[in-house]
Amino acid sequence: MSRTALIVDDSVTMRQMVSFTLKEAGYTVLEGENGEDALKKLGATRVDIVITDLNMPVMDGMTLIRNLRALPTTRTTPVLMLTTESQDSKKQEGKAAGATGWIVKPFHPEQLLKVLAKVVP
Amino acid sequence: MKIDLEQFKPAFFEESEEHLATLERELMKLVSDASDREAMNSIFRAVHSVKGGSGTFGFTEVASFTHSFESVLDAAREGRLPTNGALVDLSLKAMDVLRGLLEAARTGSALPEQMPDVLRALDALLHGDATAAAATPTPAALSTATKWLIKFRPAEGILRTGMDPALITREFESLGTLTRISCDRSRIPVLKDLDPINCHLAWEYELEAVSTAEALRDVFAFVEDGAEITIQPLNARAVPAVNAVATPQRARTIDPHAAAAHSASSIRVPIAKVDRLINLVGEIVIAQSMLEDAVRTAQQSTENKLSDALTQLVRGTRDLQEQVMGIRMVPLASTFGRFPRLVRDLSLACNKHVRLETTGEETELDKHVVELIGDPLVHLIRNSLDHGIEAPDERRAAGKPEESVLSITAETRGGSVVIEVRDDGRGIDVERVRRKAERDGLVQPDAILSEDEILSLVFRPAFSTADHVTDISGRGVGLDVVKRNVEALNGSVSISTRRGIGTTFRIRLPLTLAILDGLSFRVGDQVFITSLLSVVRSLRPSRETLRHILREGEVLAIESETMPLVRLHRLFGIDSANEDPVQGIVVVVEHDGGRLALLVDEVLGQQQVVVKRLEEHWTRVESVMGATILGDGRVALILDTQALARRCRGESATAQHAA
């Protein structure tokens, strides 16, 4: 059965790139342009992985992660954050919010798939 | 799996353009209000996004520059740096460098010259005067072994972060061979205390893999918080450390074709437009099936059915065409966004107080037109600030407020868009323009000219290149270029002015280049079309208006103006055409401020035509801007009057040499 991923980023390029990579890897992909949009698109759908940017207008990634953890359908869903900061502070903040892991931008599709293999059952 | 990202580069560049526009717009907000936090956040996000994308696509210069830029913005955003004039100025410069870097990445052009200076300034701002010490990762002490004992007790809440501990096992399996796994269940509480979301298990692995403790530790990268992890080599050996092979830097490939095609390569379209199209296609399909049905049952009385279906198909097709055209329409905002910065820089440079007011940014035009109208508008703005708007003391002396207002407005009027650049400066002295034109021999002293006709003289190339134009009226520098560019978009430009009150330049543009309001005429058995905007009049010339001048060739003198006669039949080799001007009609068209008389057999009328570019199907033809298919299926060429005029000038020059 095909896996489903939710990609949340305000950059279309980033969404396209991640989405393309995941589709190549056999995923069905949902896209959201910010946290609020993502929650709306998600509705009651169950997804296998959420990949989200942190810096976004309307609702940022941290808030989205906290919201996802509060929902029954996504309580234990792996959530990866896309971050450009390699400092620990953002990662710690993200982990505290409930993120599973992170990918430091810039990354190549191969790296993305490698990280996915770490967290997607 | 190797995934090629090349296809996403155009989208990245396009998106970067939008981020640059955002930067420009939001930075200007900071100029007027340095405490605008929302603007600061937008600026940060824009730079941040460019950085993310550029790294992914291997544009290392862009990535490293945006990193510095972003760090400064981040510091300002968090209050570690003051958001003051210096920061905004530096950010504007950084934006220019970023624009240059993106251009360099796209086309392979040279890196912007100011980059090192701006980069230094950014780093200096961020780190004070201390040199930025790049954090170099210290190579971890690497011990290499082939057999490992690994113990892992995850944090109790591991499942709450979306991590399944079983995945660790899977990852070890991908690194080598797991020779033993044991699970420690001793800490599982009694049932009444058990919360299934918590994890109480621990694991021990024996792994056979050539690896380092560091690499194995990486497996736990996402789960090490609150976990107990030990990694012991079981048979440490002095094997030379094997460094992980770094991902090779991706070479930047430059595709000149991709670069050239950039401006027209993609358009982002609102979903609503696409939805309307899909609906329309649906309606046309319905009309088509109605037609099929009517034809199938043709024996019965089908006349009504057929005509109903046809009516529907015609209506659907017309709407569909309109909507498809609409897809190419984009708002002028991207062009208008450049102006606040321009006006700010120019007014600083010439010491004038200018307030820019823009309205109608949302007005939509063909994407191509939007891209090409920027330069003429910049020219007009420059012109207004250079010459039209007075210095503050001059304004005060004239009883006007020191701050002048430059307003740029756009609106849709009928089938065209009108853009006005209006200043409240000193206006143009019509009399002086006329005197200047007479001195330069552009008009005869006895010629009777309306004010509009005199004003239009400032668009003459000869006029604008005169050295003391600014002394006369303050107008004219390069305005011929504006006119030519606007006309190349099938548009027109006009001026109105009042002395002491101000000047307005009005540009009228067609909504799209794909449809043209044309005048069609017949030459022999051929039909030609010219843009209706360029047509001044048509008439049957009398014998005495026709002259032959050695230097100019055949000319027509109409109301004290002489213009070259263009024999289309000769130009296009049409044998069946009338060759005597007195028996035919001449269509007078305007180009670059001059006029041409086209000899035709008959004027057929005006009509909207869909322009097909010849070079798309065949090759470029001089004097022809495209072709269209007429209602009866025939092909008509659309004349390029500017090219015709150039050709005339070239020919008469040759004739002169021959003489």
Description:
The complex is a heterodimer of chains A (about 120) and B (about 650). Chain A has about 120 residues and is an alpha/beta fold. Chain A has a single domain, classed as Rossmann fold. Chain A has a 5-stranded parallel sheet with strand order 2-1-3-4-5, with helices on both faces. The longest helix of chain A is centred in the first third of the chain and has 13 residues. With about 650 residues, chain B is α+β, with helices and mostly antiparallel strands. Chain B has 5 domains: about 120 residues, HPT domain (Four Helix Bundle (Hemerythrin (Met), subunit A), Up-down Bundle), CATH 1.20.120; about 90 residues, 2-Layer Sandwich (Alpha-Beta Plaits), CATH 3.30.70; about 55 residues; about 180 residues, 2-Layer Sandwich (Heat Shock Protein 90), CATH 3.30.565.10; about 140 residues, CheA-289, Domain 4 (OB fold (Dihydrolipoamide Acetyltransferase, E2P)), CATH 2.40.50. Chain B has a 6-stranded mixed sheet with strand order 14-18-19-17-16-15. A 5-stranded mixed sheet of chain B has the order 6-8-9-11-10. In chain B, α9 runs antiparallel to α10 and α12 packs parallel to α13. Chain B is extended. Chain B starts with 8 loop residues before the first helix and ends with a helix. The C terminus of chain B is likely disordered. Classes of the chains: A alpha/beta (about 120), B alpha+beta (about 650). At the A-B interface, α1 and α5 of A face α1, α2 and α6 of B.
